[in-house]
Design goal:
heterodimer; A: mainly beta; seven-stranded mixed beta sheet; four-stranded antiparallel beta sheet; 11 strands; globular; B: mainly beta; six-stranded mixed beta sheet; 12 strands; 0% helix
């Protein structure tokens, strides 16, 4: 079954404690991206990756890092999380750019206290 | 820069009423895709429809229909005979051009929360 898998689904952490949210897709897609969703703001793109070792900033990259060492995986790293990063995070993948349908993961609800 | 506006933040309707969710977009690209996604209370994003910039045909799928008008840069979504299960947040989204700079963009509106009351 074609899918994008995020882990964990829920996470509560403390300010400053480094964390990684994993994202994996089994569709051999080139393009992957991360979004955060906040009430009243919709989904905003954090980072995206066009292929292995090729990443670029989206609209709200501050406080986040990503890596793309393998085609299937695109982890989101918060080196020093802060409460304003409390949000619902979505990973997405597609064959290429926006013209192709994006498949979304189930979401990760992160709370930073 | 691209922009998607969903002016209706929240809508409440009584079951069996029809409801239209508005979406207005801005882009300088001549090629693009428009999307609608549904986010039920469980939180996942469910793909509903994709239309490309060359295809202004309206589409109907069961109780759902979409009206794409390039002249007004709108891509509105109508639910006929609404049901409680339609209660969700609905997002409209706009892609970048088919190729070249900006082709990796996917810009979302802020969403419209629809509540269908029994």
């Amino acid at each position: 079954e074609a899918q994008v898998t995020q882990n964990p689904r829920y996470l509560i952490t403390v300010t400053g404690k480094k964390l990684t949210v994993t994202c994996s897709q089994n569709m051999n897609h080139e393009y992957m991206s991360w979004y955060r969703q906040d009430p009243g703001l919709g989904l905003r793109q954090i980072y995206y990756s066009m292929n292995v070792e090729v990443t670029d900033k989206g609209d709200v990259p501050e406080g986040y890092k990503v890596s793309r060492k393998e085609k299937r995986n695109f982890p989101l790293i918060l080196e020093s999380p802060s409460p304003n990063q409390t949000s619902l995070y979505f990973c997405a993948s597609s064959l290429s750019a926006g013209r192709y349908l994006a498949f979304f993961g189930q979401g990760t609800r992160l709370t930073v206290v | 820069a691209q922009k998607v506006t969903q002016a209706q933040t929240e809508i409440s309707v009584v079951e069996k009423e029809d409801v239209t969710l508005d979406c207005v977009y801005e882009t300088r690209d001549t090629t693009y895709y428009l999307f609608w996604y549904k986010q039920p209370p469980s939180g996942e994003l469910v793909f509903l429809i994709r239309r490309n910039s060359f295809d202004e045909q309206n589409e109907i799928s069961g109780r759902y229909s979409w009206n794409f008008q390039k002249s007004t840069s709108s891509f509105n979504f109508t639910i006929t005979a609404s049901q409680v299960v339609d209660s969700a947040v609905y997002f409209c989204a706009l892609s970048g051009p088919f190729s070249g700079a900006g082709s990796y963009q996917l810009t979302f509106g802020k969403g419209t929360k629809l509540s269908v009351i029994p």
